[in-house]
Amino acid sequence: MISAHTPTASVPPPRAAYLVRHGAMRFLGEYVGLPGQLFRRGEAVVLRTERGQEAGEVLCPSSPQVLSAVPDPTGGEILRRFTLEDHDRLAEIRTIQKREYDKGQELVHAHHLAMQIVDVEHLF
Q: What is the pLDDT along the chain (124 residues), one digit of tens a residue?
């Protein structure tokens, strides 16, 4: 008897998708983790978005029902969990943003401009 033996292909682990909040405007979107990565609610992560690398917060696993409640969801990939270096970098970014916001306010006032600085945002 001859048996047909087909080699079993290695199937990569599934990539879980999550609803993640990110950016100064608190965007919501569906972000996919790398194979085998699982995240909990509230975890800080580094994302690859349409705008570049950003810090984000995992809200919940993604599903069609969840996405139906989000108007214009963003999308991309979760690159990694936040590291100590990422926390340090985020603190540095926030310091720079505060300094630039204050300088912008000062210039608007000094030049009597009819405008208001709303926010300053740097990406990761």
A: 555 555 566 776 778 899 999 998 899 999 999 888 899 999 999 999 999 999 999 999 998 998 888 999 999 999 999 999 999 999 999 999 999 999 999 999 999 999 999 999 988 8
Cα 20 from Cα 116, distance rounded (Å)? 29
Alpha-carbon gap, residue 75 to 35, rounded angstroms: 17
Q: Distance (Å, rounded) from C-alpha 28 to C-alpha 68?
A: 12
Alpha-carbon torsion 87, 88, 91, 97, what sign? negative
Long-range contacts of 92-98, Cβ-Cβ distance < 8 Å, separation of 24 or more: 93/122, 93/124, 96/122, 97/121, 97/122
Does the predicted model carry a pTM greater than 0.90? no
